[in-house]
Amino acid sequence: MIEFLKYIRGYLRIRVWGFSPERFMNLCSNKDILLWDIVRDGEVYYMNITLKGFYRLRPIAKKTGTRVAILQRYGLPFFLPRLLRRKVFLAGLFLTVAFWIWSSTHIWDIELEGNYQITQDVFNDFLRENQVSEGMRKELLDIETLEKEIRRQFPQVTWASAKLEGTRLRISIKENDAPIITDTRERPAGADLTSQYAGTVVSVMVRSGVPAVAAGDVVEAGTVLVEGRVPVYNDDSTVREYIYVDADADVVLEHTLQFTDSLPLDYIEKEYTGREEQRYYLRVGEKEWKLPEDRPFLVYDSVIRESRTLLFQKLSIPVFLGSCTHREYQNVEYEYTLDEAKILLNQKISEYIESLEEKGVQIIEKDVKIDRNGDSWVVIGEFLVQEPVGVRTAIDRTEGAETEQPEQTQ
Q1: What domains can you pick out in the chain, each with its CATH number?
Q2: 187 φ, ψ to 5°?
Q3: Tens-digit pLDDT profile for the chain (410 aa)?
Q4: Contact, 308 vs 285, CB < 8 A?
């Protein structure tokens, strides 16, 4: 605090030498003239003195036969005159302070947190409909009304809070995370397990129901693998009744899968000519200013870069300086060679095999051929696989029905 007061009042760094510097310092002390940071260098003394005390030194220096020279000046009384001479700097300082005061009365950043079901784009549309946007004055915002509108417009929001933090509007919401109850139709228990493919049964492990096939059996698509109608017998081995259950089993079927895909013979590739044109723009919030421009090239793509100065970033003011670089290119037509086509088509086959393995499908044999067919390369693959199969089909319970009516169920 003392140092700050010294700076406000101003002080000097002086050099004292002559007949009796020690007597000079004693007289200053007797007259309450403050001296500090005193350093001796031979017969010369260096010290600090207040600006007010310096004006009282003339009679003391004359009486002691010493001489005083000013080395440096410190403090506000010396800084302000230099500052007033720099009119451009002073104007810039004034505009900066005015801009800071003006910007602090506006909202420059809107932050949403706690949203999982509501997307940012949907919420931004809601804010625009309610005249809440970046750049608006703080006094035009009614926080209580905004919170009510959020809860009214979004039924899944159970709690909403909005508060101003400097130039940022922070909106926090809490969505209803209870499970969504959907109406499901009740269906009576009882479903068979049928095959989706034709093939040979490898293994059957039944958990519920009556097995209808065994390992080694050849089945067609739609064949019942496990029956969901379980008979209950009398003592004389006659069927007393049937109990209906949802058939459940692990059935592995060996069958053949076909895979086909194609690749166009020709393809287009971009080749950049090296010609570029760069334009700059200024964006404040959602408004953008840029110089008018014509279409620079016949065919081109654009690379956009934006940056924000640290000052605007700290103040949460959305002022961005950006550049848009247009790069000219030409569309050049090429033709895939056989080796290039093999690489791309083998990659597609590998992705197909990975998708099968993720489903638990075991590949026993594979036969893949790549050939040219007209204006395209074609790959044809045949895979012998062992795959878990079985979909549930509802049982027809009509009285006296001899057969079952297949119906896909979940």
Answers
A1: 2-80 (3.30.70.260), 109-175 (3.10.20.310), 188-265+336-410 (no CATH), 266-335 (no CATH)
A2: -125, 145
A3: 677 788 788 899 999 998 888 899 999 989 888 899 899 988 899 999 988 889 889 889 888 889 999 998 888 888 777 777 777 777 887 888 888 888 888 888 888 998 888 888 899 899 989 989 888 888 888 999 999 999 899 988 889 999 988 888 899 999 886 555 554 455 566 899 999 999 999 999 999 999 999 999 999 999 999 998 888 888 888 888 888 899 999 999 999 999 999 999 898 989 999 999 888 888 887 778 887 777 788 888 999 998 877 667 666 677 888 888 999 999 999 888 888 889 999 999 999 999 998 888 999 999 999 888 888 999 999 999 999 999 998 887 664 444 444 444 33
A4: no
Among candidate residues 50, 97, 102, the one with its CA nearest the CA of residue 78: 50
Is residue 147 a contact partner of residue 162, using CB atoms and an 8 Å limit? yes
In one-letter notation, the amino acid at residue 345 is L
Q: Own/partner pairs for 110-117, CB < 8 Å, 24+ apart?
A: 110/134, 110/168, 110/169, 110/171, 111/168, 111/169, 111/170, 111/171, 112/171, 112/173, 113/170, 113/171, 113/172, 113/173, 114/172, 114/173, 114/174, 114/175, 115/173, 115/175, 116/175, 117/156, 117/175
> Coil, strand or helix: which one is 340?
helix
Q: Where are the beta strands (DSSP E) in 265-361?
A: 266-284, 287-290, 300-307, 319-335
Which residue reads 């493919």 in tokens? 197
